[in-house]
Amino acid sequence: MAQRPVPLAPGLPRWPGAIAAWLVLVLTLGTLCIVALRAGTGQWLGPADWAAVRFTVLQAAASSAVSVLVAIPVARALARRRFRGRSLLVTLMGAPFILPVIVAVLGLLAVFGRGGLLNGALSAIGLTEVSIYGFHGVVLAHVFFNLPLAVRLILQGWLSIPAERFRLAATLDLPPGRFLEWPMLRAVVPGIALAIFLICLTSFAVALILGGGPRATTVELAIYQALRFDFDLAGAARLAVLQFGICAIAAILAWTVTLPQAQGGGLDRVVQRWDGGRWSVVRDGAVLVAAACFLLLPLAMVVTRGLSGLADLPISIWPAALRSVLVAVLSTILCLGLALTLAMRWGGALAGLASTLPLAASGLVIGTGLFLIVHPLMNPARLALVVTALVNATMALPFAYRSIAPELARVEGDYGRLADSLGLRGWARLRWLIFPRLRRPIGFAAGLSAALSMGDLGVITLFATGGQETLPLAMYRLMGAYRMDAAAGVALVLLALSLLAFWLCDRGGRVDD
Amino acid sequence: MTEGLWLDELRLEQDGFRLSADLSLKPGQVTAVLGPSGEGKSTLLSAIAGFLAPVAGRVVWDGQDLTQVPPGSRPISILFQDHNLFPHLTVNQNLGLGLHPTLRLTQADKAKVEWVLDRVGLADLGDRRPGALSGGQQSRAALGRALLAERPLVLMDEPFAALGPGLKAEMLDLAVEVLGSAGRTLVMVTHDPEDARRIADAVVFVAEGKAVPPVPPQALLDHPPEALRRYLGREVG
């Protein structure tokens, strides 16, 4: 696209984006500064802190490596096989991203936990049972969440190799693996691995349930423990700075490698190939069945156990559900407002910074900072839900921005001059040009943000008192009290609400197209 | 006071490309801007419309200096090469934007839209979206909006280039008929001397970094200067 000359008066105001950017800066860097000041000069990092750092980095590296290594054969099988239910499987690969973490963990416990399917089978044939708790459990859960993401992104890479090249390789009798697939993987995989590494660094809920103890505590979890159990503000602050440092380094690393962009469509193509024989068909089939089982069994367990658990639902669940819905609505509105106003400054340094910083920040760090701000003024518990919505909106911002901003830039490129010449400015421009043309990305971003917020078990654990439970927190407390049937029922309700929230928003963006 | 459009020692620069223009156009006339592609015809229109700030000089309409006026506030309608209609709005709404950017239309406004639709041959198609119209009908809708907008100067940056030759001629005739008879001043970019000969009162030739002041098309095309002769090649001989 040719460079568009800057008009004398911009059709969309830039100041709301500046306010949004500064708000995000305050929420991420500002809270961090407050926390760092509070940490003061006291003792420096102790052995427990270093153990948390080591565990955080190691589990993230292991999760990322396993996800990518397993994803490669799965993506290859999906790229070259055509079978019934293939597109459904690809669609389901998108689901874990909006799946509440605690629901997925419950499903994993039902399969791999004590008394789960796997251990039932093992003890039936006289083998010793395995435990899902600790390092490998955390990695297992992270692979569950990130394997589908990795598969989708690598599948994109595979499908981006032109079909003509496979034909050429076949006529020249060249092995396509070495000449076509290896270069593609080398280009695509590092970015994906880094993205997953980054996601796993800030993992909290998984570590909260499956980790714990001196040998399996992430920095995020350590912050929570310092605040919640020891009320050690200085310790929490020290850890918060540490966490930001780790994430910032990873984010800068990720910036140097091109981060993969998830595309919506186009994954239903199959690459026709001429190499490989019957053996490779069998192998692909086995890989796909194994991957599908790994991803679908826990979900199936959530549904079946949830249905029988519905009878045990405590009545207090419904106010919690209402609170979760309210938090999700508030968070979605905030997130969309931030993303849209920042998108109006597309290409600007401030917008780029503000839409990236939350990737390096962690919800608990922001929560800690807000906690410290609010603490002298009033009881932080009173603001638990508002703070949760604010943190959730911030954390979802990078995804919402990346969905909206490029589209807004494209619309302005195509129709900006026409709108300028008609004098469409400010609200009229939003009303008649931007909103109608951005329905899809806005709907998608809203769905994502609503689902993420609905299922979030993060900062709420820091603040909430009895009367302020959200649905994920209520579920976590039921699990902690070993009321697994009731927890399973809540999981089903939470799952339904999250999927419904995503579906409603995303659908809303697609009507009458 | 100069009536019409006056480009007062205008100098433009864009990505290392330069163009100068010092000329005036009489009101109510049809002026063709003719020249090889890539010589700056569209750049000149961009500057007049306010999308490109000049490095020096002024754009003046009826004695009013427009140089610092934003595009939407200039007494100018413009038809682009493409993207002349918002695809998500109906034809009625697209035309209505020419009256009020907020689309708050009175009964009188709606009647005006009806009348203009009829005038450009789109009666009864107002509820359709542009996607449901043919290329020619879309051009008619864009012309209709320019007619409705009641801005005295209309710029056309080859809006009909994608149409076939017959349809293009038809649209140019329609433009001159409805806009010209409404007293508008038309400035249209073209690379086809035949267009200029058929409908223009004057021709501005743009080449080698300069927009030459307007001359009658007959005189210019019958006795082309060196640069134009080269551009026209065998056509004039």
The chain-level structural class of chain B is: alpha/beta
Strand fraction of chain A equals under 5%
N to C succession of SSEs of chain B? EEEHEEEHHHEHEHEEHH
Rounded to the nearest angstrom, the radius of gyration of chain B is 18 Å
- CATH topological fold name of the largest domain in chain B: Rossmann fold
Could you spell the SSE succession of chain A in H and E letters?
A: HHHHHHHHHHHHHHHHHHHHH
Radius of gyration of chain A (Å): 24 Å
CATH architecture of the largest domain in chain A: Orthogonal Bundle
CATH topology of the largest domain in chain A: MetI-like fold
Q: Quote the average pLDDT of chain B.
A: 90
The overall pLDDT of chain A, averaged over residues, is 86
CATH superfamily of the largest domain in chain B: P-loop containing nucleotide triphosphate hydrolases
Class by helix and strand content of chain A?
mainly alpha
| CATH homologous superfamily classification of the largest domain in chain A | MetI-like
Overall tally of structural domains of chain A: 2
What does this structure look like?
The complex is a heterodimer of chains A (513) and B (237). By secondary structure, chain A is mostly helical. Chain A folds into 2 domains: 233 residues, Orthogonal Bundle (MetI-like fold), CATH 1.10.3720; 257 residues, Orthogonal Bundle (MetI-like fold), CATH 1.10.3720.10. Helices cover 73% and strands 0% of the residues of chain A. With 237 residues, chain B is an alpha/beta fold. Chain B has 2 domains: 156 residues, Rossmann fold; 62 residues. Chain B is built from 8 helices and 10 strands. Chain B is globular and about 50 Å long. The mean pLDDT of chain B is 90. Chains A and B meet through α16 and α17 of A and β6 and α2 of B.
